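Severity: low
Component: inverse-folding endpoint
Summary: output formatting inconsistent between runs
Steps to reproduce: submit the following structure tokens with default settings.
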């Protein structure tokens, strides 16, 4: 009986760990720095990326204390070290993707980031299209 209880608890623990892994990026992440291809580091504090259940994505820019620009998209993780984000065509200022690209610094509105580091408080993404590294802290 004790063995059965032990194995059931072990299975429950493993299932909960797997569930955590599936939604590990959930929540809001504050962009802290952007490092360009020349290794110049630019501090940032008004940009947030949000992830929900590895399906929904939002990019938020605090334009000033009373105004925010939010752009929505979709995300998936094709592997443990890749993050694919696709901006919704209807959410980027009526399809003005050039404005979004200029604002975000992304190389495309359909982008695959390399996940360089992830833990409960820090996320580092790399965009090979523009050679930029984005460092976040959990918000």
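Observed output (run 2 of 3):
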């Amino acid at each position: 009986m004790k063995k059965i209880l032990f194995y059931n608890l072990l299975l429950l623990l493993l299932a909960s760990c797997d569930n955590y892994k599936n939604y590990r990026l959930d929540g809001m992440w504050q962009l802290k720095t952007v490092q360009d291809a020349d290794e110049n580091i630019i501090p940032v504090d008004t940009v947030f990326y949000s992830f929900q259940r590895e399906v929904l994505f939002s990019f938020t820019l605090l334009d000033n204390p009373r105004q925010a620009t939010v752009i929505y998209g979709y995300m998936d993780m094709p592997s443990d070290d890749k993050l694919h984000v696709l901006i919704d065509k209807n959410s980027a200022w009526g399809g003005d993707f050039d404005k979004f690209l200029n604002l975000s610094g992304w190389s495309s509105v359909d982008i695959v980031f390399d996940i360089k580091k992830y833990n409960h408080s820090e996320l580092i993404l790399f965009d090979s299209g523009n050679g930029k590294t984005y460092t976040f802290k959990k918000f």
